[in-house]
Amino acid sequence: MSSTDVRYPNESNVGASSPPVVTPHYNSTLPNPPNDPSSTRPTRCATGVRFFTTIHGILNIIILIALICVIISAGVADNGRIADDFASNSRAKVSAFHTRNAVLVFASFGLVLIIVDTILHVSSLIYRLPTAFDLIFIIIMLVFAFIYLILGCCSAAWEQKVRDIPEPANLLIRHKGAAASAAFFLFVAMIVVAIDFALRLINRPAQSYTPSSIINRNAYDMHMNTDDSLLTILFQRLTTENIDDIIRDRSACFILEKLFIYLPNILSIDNEQILLGYNHLFECICENFNDYIQETGTSHIIASTISFLHPLIPSKDNNNNEYEELIDGGENEKKYIELSLEWNIKEKLKKLGKLINKTNNYNEFVYSILLRTCGYLYNEYYHKLLNRIYKKYYKNLNIEYLLDKHSSYIFEVILEFSSKQRDENLYIIFINNIDKFYLHSIGNFFFKHLLLTLNNKELLENIYQLMINKQRFENFIQKSHIHLLITFIRICERFHCHYEEFIQHLNKFINNSENNINNFIPCLLKLRAENSENQLITKEGSLIVQALLRAKKIDKLTYQSFISLTGEQISTIACHPNGSYLLCQLILKSNLWPLIREKNFYNKLDKFYTKMSCDKYACWFITQLWKNAQTIEQKLQMVKNMSNDLQLLRSHIYAKYITYEMNLTAYCSRPEQWKRNIEITIKKHALLDDLDDNKNKKKKKKKL
């Protein structure tokens, strides 16, 4: 079985390449950068065995030899008591005893530090430490160089003191030249340490630009400025020569997996070249399938290669909000690129199915990707492959398989497509053991996936009746994963399954003053707060409210509670990072906005426009308010209040951009002209909106 889970990486396997982040409901993978230490940060000198061939490695060896000689010289020398007692008339006034001890201590410390430095660079452990460590270590060693200078001078004085001892007391001194030897090697160590670490200080770590960083630079930008042909050329080079070595290499493997995300966008331009490279890759995978499926990195290449046969078109909205897919609740269907017939998709899927049948290595992640791709593109073979997997691995299916972090991938895919196994096995096991799913770290993903793929209202009704149980409902609201709670709310709304009733139950649970429905939204925003008195908004609460606002028909409780919010409450929400995003989403995507916009929403905020314009987060909400004001009265409401604080707003780091947007200076100097310009702009926007509506109506008529 596979050794690493994709959603929950195995913490003990730190050295392995990070598996891609996979959203269980979607087949697109987003690979993380590999944990290859050498790719994580630059260093000031070479690492590995090559360190000894550089000037820093050579200087480290010289420092080691010099400090060992210092320790030996000071160690064999007399302890200094005789020199201090009999050389009272000497010109050297340093204490020989204390000098010797100081030399031994600092030489030993320096030796340890140099050994540590050498080990860190030779073993490449330096990459595990932060970049700031290099600078701190350099400063410490330069301080040691200064100490060695002082100790060298003191050792020279110590030598002079030994020479000044009168006879016959000087006969008691053994190894008279030890002090001079220690002084000499201290000066050598001082010079070499200063040179070594001064060079490191001067040599700033160079920024490396690897193909991975170039591809990753615009990882979430659909409209990349990168020349499309460069991606095709890179893909061809990776899949032409030494392809087996590239697949087995962690860094190159990561780049190849990244390429699979962006290549679908340029299939219409370079289809032939991409197909040629893909065929080379596919043949190599088939030849070494048994080896590749056993390792984490190479098995991800198999999965990415299979997924490429049915590439997902990413949504632009999902680039800005990781929870957008959940808040959407499956309302908008995912779109895929259809590959041409020359790709021979069915033959490739059959070939992979035969290889899986031959191998004894079971990798759930690869199997699940193949099953999903067959489910979309080759339904007949999907059922054949599913039956084969069931007979071979899941003859005695039980709940443990569904809650296993590896095999759960298979069952999440089975939920997506109609089959005997899904309807007669999975649904029944889930309904009978629902308590073991919704609070389980893996089971909650299965539950969420079941909801998102559900097309059986009767089953949803059964699930709802089970979840509405008092104790279960309380645990569900307070302890379940927020992903699952958002999905449950959205699915109930989409299927019209007791949605209003669920909101009423939610209100009873979170609202202490149940009769005061106006407190519903403020209480919901505090959901799962550690300190509800001080913490006005939580991330979980804001996400739940977003889910309620995305409904096609807003429930009465949410509508009434939003209408009743005061201007102070709205400004408080806007000044919170999660609250500001919530209010922006209300304006941009909720059906509630047109309703509350007409209910004196702009008037409520009269006293708070200036405050919110000067806030780091609320300024975004003010910008959206301005852009989405549909009447001249609403825009005048904003500028009249803000014009009183023009100088403050113009000088503020955030508010000044809003004053430019509103052209507030022109309003203060020429209000009538400003008003005429705004009226013209509003009329233009209204006309363009009418034209867009007419175009959409014509398209609908053509479809009909």
User: C-alpha Rg, in Å?
Assistant: 35 Å
Instruction: Please state the average pLDDT score.
Output: 82
Class based on secondary structure composition and strand pairing: mainly alpha
Could you give the distance between the termini? 51 Å
The strands making up the biggest β-sheet line up spatially as 1-2
Structure description:
The structure is a single chain. Among the domains are: 24-36 and 227-393, no CATH class; 48-202, no CATH class. α3 packs antiparallel against α4 (132-163), α15 (364-377) runs antiparallel to α16 and α15 packs parallel to α18. The longest helix has 33 residues, at 671-703. It is mainly alpha-helical.
Please sum up the structure shown.
This protein is mainly α and 704 residues long.
Any chance you could write out the topology, listing elements then pairs?
Layout: E1 21-22, E2 29-30, H1 55-76, H2 81-86, H3 96-122, H4 132-163, H5 178-202, H6 211-216, H7 228-238, H8 243-248, H9 250-262, H10 267-287, H11 289-292, H12 296-307, E3 312-313, H13 324-328, E4 335-336, H14 345-358, H15 364-377, H16 379-393, H17 399-403, H18 408-414, H19 420-432, H20 443-452, H21 457-467, H22 470-479, H23 482-494, H24 499-510, H25 520-525, H26 539-549, H27 556-563, H28 567-574, H29 577-589, H30 593-597, H31 601-604, H32 609-613, H33 618-627, H34 632-643, H35 646-651, H36 655-662, H37 664-669, H38 671-703
Antiparallel strand pairs: 1-2, 3-4
Helix pairs in contact: 1-3, 1-5, 3-4, 4-5, 7-10, 9-12, 12-15, 14-15, 15-16, 15-18, 20-23, 23-26, 26-29, 29-33, 33-36
